[in-house]
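Subject: for your reference before the review

Hello V.,

The reviewers asked for a structural picture of the protein, and I figured it would be easier to keep everything in one thread rather than splitting it across files. Below is the amino acid sequence we used in the manuscript, unchanged from the supplementary table.
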Amino acid sequence: MLGVPTLAELIDALDSWYPPDTAESWDSVGLGCGDPADRIERVLLAVDCVPATVAEAIDNGAGLLLTHHPLLLSGIRTVAADTPKGALLHRMIRAGVAHFVAHTNADVAAGGVSDALAERLGLLDCRPLQPDPRPAVDQLTVYVPLPDTDRLIGALAEAGAGAIGNYTECAYVVEGVGQFRPQPGADPAEGEIGVLHRGPENRVTVVLPRSRRTAVLAAMRAAHPYEEVAFELTEQPSLPAGTGSGRVGRLPEPMSLAGFTDFVCRRLPPTVWGVRAAGRPDQQIRTVAVCGGSGAGYLPDVRRSGADAFLTADLKHHVSSEAVAEPAGLLPELALLDAAHWATEAPWLQLAAGRLRERFGGLQVLVSELVTDPWTLHAH
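And here is what came back from the structure prediction:
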């Protein structure tokens, strides 16, 4: 556990949990303002960077405001202090408050927004609704004399091969007999020209990121004693990762849609918007798909998942009407629950705060309790 961190150390931790390269291309994540060399004693987490949360950060002496939603998402031409966004930036900079954003990269991450939402509902056996593919992987098998095996494995590992999860220098080694007959012009490390040579060799198999293929093959050739290296390289199929958009899991006990809607309303932070549902009130809900924020685009994935209900935000009339209408019995019944956008993402704040507290013992971590959902009245 680390003490009082620098902003750079905080960013390293946040980027490891919510890799910026997993954000959508249109997104704006990372450091919006602040000096990475500054020491940060206190951080405030909030969904939105708005005047109220900026004031809360300043009032609480926070050196960092960490939000889910970006301040500078839409293209702007100026950050002048007489513009709304410029005024907030100037206010934070003058007060020594840095601003950092984890947005769509936090949506898809393990321990991210949708995981927090699923956890808030107590869903079991969760998996991504739309899984990310794992990075492309190759399998390399190379044949090497016994005395050179360790040196070769070390060279492959240094070039990026043999890493599996939290383990490095992973290799499968099997001893056997190799043979070859050197032809004129060859310069064999073992054996004689024209004479069949047999000798003990190890068959070494490692995996490697496809992005490291060129470097690993170069390291293999440099470390191998033979002038002609016998090897096999196989592209592995792309498998789903544990990260991705949305989550789908099962309730500990089934309940009616009416009961589940009431349960969701009690489990999410209260908002004027509340929770509305589309579907048959007595429909039995067992499997639930969730997506923090705007998730209408994942309805085809929800259908494929076999979920009985889908909880998200910002659902529109025609999309919702078509989703719950049963087309002549061709598709299973699907219920929709539409909650406030802010409420579906706010549970992530506590999850992220817990990670920060665990990593940095000298950091004070505050979570904003301000409801920054824009809807303030609801008449019916």
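For the response letter, the relevant points are probably these. Residues 347-359 form the longest helix (13 residues). The CA atoms of residues 53 and 59 lie 10 Å apart.

Happy to draft the paragraph if you're swamped.

O.
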